Each structure stands twice: as C-alpha cells, then as structure tokens.
C-alpha cells in the first residue's frame, strides 16, 4: 500500500467517531494490511463462428455466384464486414454481430477468379466472382485434391456392380492356364 493510502486512512480515522470504524482503521494502519483493488471487469472475448453450412453456389459461363444465408445482412454497416478475394480463395468476415464474429472462407476455389471484378451484394450476401478462364465449367466450388478424388472413386467402386463379366484371357494362356508366351 502506498504512503498516500496511509495518509488517507489517518484522515478517515480523524473524521470518524464510531469506535468500530476506528478499530478497523487502526488495524489497517498498524498491520499494514493490503487493501485489494476492486476487480476490473474486462471486455469478454468475442467468439468467432465459422459458416460451414447455409450457403449455395451457382455458375454461368463467366461468373461463379455464392449465396451466403445470413440473417440481417441488409442492415450490416459497411465497417462491420469485409470480403477478401484472391485468385484461388475468398474470405468473408462479419464483425461483432449479435455478440459474435462470423467467418466464411474457401481456401482452394476450383479454378482462378479475377479478384478486382468481385461484386458483393449485401441484401442477402451475394458474392459474384468473375472466372479468369471464362467458359470453364466448375464441377465443384472447391478444388478437389487427389486424395478426395481417390476417395470418391473408391466409394463408387464399392457400390458399383458390373453388368457383365469381362473375359481377360489372352491368346498366350493355354486351356490349362499355363502361359505360353515365352515357349
């Protein structure tokens, strides 16, 4: 406790006539007890919610359009959201809306876009991306990795039942199944 605090305790003791208050002040002065500062309430951390559902997309020959479903989008002030578009990614951030931040991000778009030509229509959060390779057809919004493609093929093969059985016998195998190629 600083000297200033002790001077204030002496001043308060001289002002009071109640013996119980004088005793408390004497104890504080004599024992040099620490008077705790009040606990300061800090602003709570705002939680970030990641938008992983509630969006759709479509395409034309020249653009890809994303529809992000977000309640109250038309009332968002300009300083409460941002859109960052790069050639292969996009990120939408909405700040401090109903006690939370919101983030919608796609890191690997299926193909290249022209960031400068991006249009944001806020009434329903409509993001229009201009394709760099016009007339290209995107099979998906996100670029598929080799592993994703392999997994899809593997799932297909498990569910696929061949209509007919192919005969893979060659003229180099005789009727007993022995290879006659090198004989």
From TrEMBL:
Stored InterPro entries: Calcyclin-binding_UBL-bridge, CS_dom, HSP20-like_chaperone
SUPFAM superfamilies recorded: HSP20-like chaperones
PROSITE patterns in the record: CS
Protein name: CS domain-containing protein
A cellular-component GO term for this protein: nucleus
Residues annotated as domain CS: 50-142
Superkingdom: Eukaryota
């Amino acid at each position: 406790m600083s000297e200033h605090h002790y001077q204030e305790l002496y001043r308060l003791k001289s002002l009071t006539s109640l013996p119980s208050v004088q005793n408390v002040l004497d104890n504080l002065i004599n024992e040099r007890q620490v008077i705790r500062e009040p606990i300061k309430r800090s602003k709570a951390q705002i939680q970030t919610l990641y938008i992983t559902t509630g969006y759709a997309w479509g395409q034309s020959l020249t653009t890809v359009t994303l529809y992000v479903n977000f309640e109250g989008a038309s009332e968002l002030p300009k300083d409460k959201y941002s859109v960052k578009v790069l050639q292969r990614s996009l990120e939408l951030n909405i700040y401090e809306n109903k006690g939370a931040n919101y983030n919608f991000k796609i890191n690997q778009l299926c193909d290249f876009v022209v960031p400068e030509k991006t249009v944001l229509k806020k009434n329903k959060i409509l993001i229009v991306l201009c394709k760099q390779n016009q007339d290209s057809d995107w099979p998906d919004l996100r670029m598929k990795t080799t592993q994703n493609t392999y997994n899809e093929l593997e799932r297909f093969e498990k569910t696929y039942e061949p209509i007919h059985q192919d005969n893979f016998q060659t003229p180099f195998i005789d009727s007993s199944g022995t290879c006659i190629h090198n004989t």
